[in-house]
Amino acid sequence: MGDIAHQRLRNQQIARSAFTEPCEVVRWMGAMQAQDYLGALWAVGLRLPSATEHSIEQALAEKAIVRTWPMRGTIHFLAAADARWMLELLTPRVIQRSKGRLRELGLDATIIAASADVIVKTLEGGKQLPRNALYDVLEDAHIATGDSRGLHILGQLAHERLICFGARAGKQPTFALFDEWVPGAKSLPRDEALATLALRYFTGHGPATVHDFMWWTGLIAADARNGLAAVAAQLQCDMVDGQQYYAGQELPFAASPEHSQGQAFLLPPFDEFLVAYRDRSAALDANDAKQVMPGSNGIFYPIVVIDGRVVGIWKRAFKSDRVVLTFSPFRPWSETETRAIEAAAEHYGAFVGKTAVMSD
Fold first, then answer.
1. When you count CB atoms within 10 A of the terminal residue's CB, does the N or C end of the chain come out lower?
2. Looking at the predicted structure, is the pLDDT value of residue 255 above 50?
3. The CATH number of the domain where 38 resides is what?
4. For residue range 69-123, what is the model confidence (pLDDT) as tens digits?
């Protein structure tokens, strides 16, 4: 399975970079998980030459990239032009699955509609407000936001394409009206949307299986297979361990891993290199999975990848003039591997504009 991991490093633009703009990377990937905001900035930045945290945030502020809830009830980055059709395609199943939780919280259709009216009137005209300010507005309208009701209200309105995240105000994310924030986002016919999403996923994430595609999108099997069938002629397919894997055609499927051999990468939490697949065994040993995903509760720690394999986890701590990186290896690292990790740490330090220091 090693070649699969190496090819994913290349196709995901980690071991190579074919783009110069943040929105190009996000569009190539289809979507990039952005639950952890600062980690998501790095997820885009590590896939670009000479990117900085500021340059990725600038793309968000300029509305080239949108942060919202398109699939699996989880926050992602989308290319602005793709935001409408992806939400239209993927959120109906999320909305359907969330009905039980909304009932538990006492959030019926009448309350959601009233919340929408309040939020739209508050944000119209290009306004952006942080979550707590919107909660205050809802409370003033006698709509309770405690016990996570507020979060579910905002999530529901995002699924319905009424709101999305705006620019940050200090350290706080804001919300804006979707139609005002990305007025150029277009709809697509359903069949075209399925085909487009399948092509984006398998070229940007491949080699991958249809089951991986179903996991990533939340689509039912019939829709996932229809999307794949529509673009199969544009993909290459190979059988590995009894499973059909699909990838884009610009790279030979059995390509040599030499381009990423010996390279180390510091990937953020929830990076697409792991989270985008139902089967993660190509890169992650089963014995190490609990250290990367403790508690099996959907939380992914930042990972260290060498030669396509996850070999440890890491964390950061900011000081006035430096960022201190602390590592937890899954096995002892050789001197060569340590030097490769030092180079990766320098890359991350340059991204955040601080000297990277590896903690003993």
1. C
2. no
3. 1.10.10.10
4. 999 999 999 999 999 999 999 999 999 999 999 999 999 999 999 999 999 999 9
Question: Could you give the count of Cα atoms lying within 13 Å of 325 in the half-sphere of its Cβ?
Answer: 26
> Of 181, 208, 224, which residue is a domain's last?
181
Domain hosting residue 295, numbered range = 260-358
Calculate the alpha carbon distances from 16 to 147, 288, 359 in Å. Answer: 45, 26, 28
Among the listed residues 34, 45, 266, 43, the one whose alpha carbon sits nearest the alpha carbon of residue 165: 34
Find the helix packing angle between 83-104 and 190-205, rounded to 10°.
100
Strands 65-71 and 74-79, sheet pairing:
antiparallel
DSSP string, 45-98: HTTSTT--HHHHHHHHHTTSEEEEEEETTEEEEEEGGGHHHHHHHHHHHHHHHH
Cβ neighbors of 168 (< 8 A, separation 6 or more) are: 57, 60, 174
Which residue from 69, 67, 65, 66 is spatially nearest to 157, judged by alpha carbons?
69
Q: How far apart are the first and last CA of the chain?
A: 33
pTM of the predicted model, to two decimals?
A: 0.94
| Locus of tokens 């999307």 | 227
Question: Are residues 174 and 271 part of one domain?
Answer: no
- In a domain? residue 283: yes
Query: Which positions ≥6 away from 53 have C-beta within 8 Å?
Result: 38, 41, 42, 45, 351, 352, 353
| Least-confidence region, from 40-49, 295-304, 306-315 | 295-304
Q: Assess if residue 230 is contained within a domain.
A: no
What's the domain count of the chain?
Answer: 2
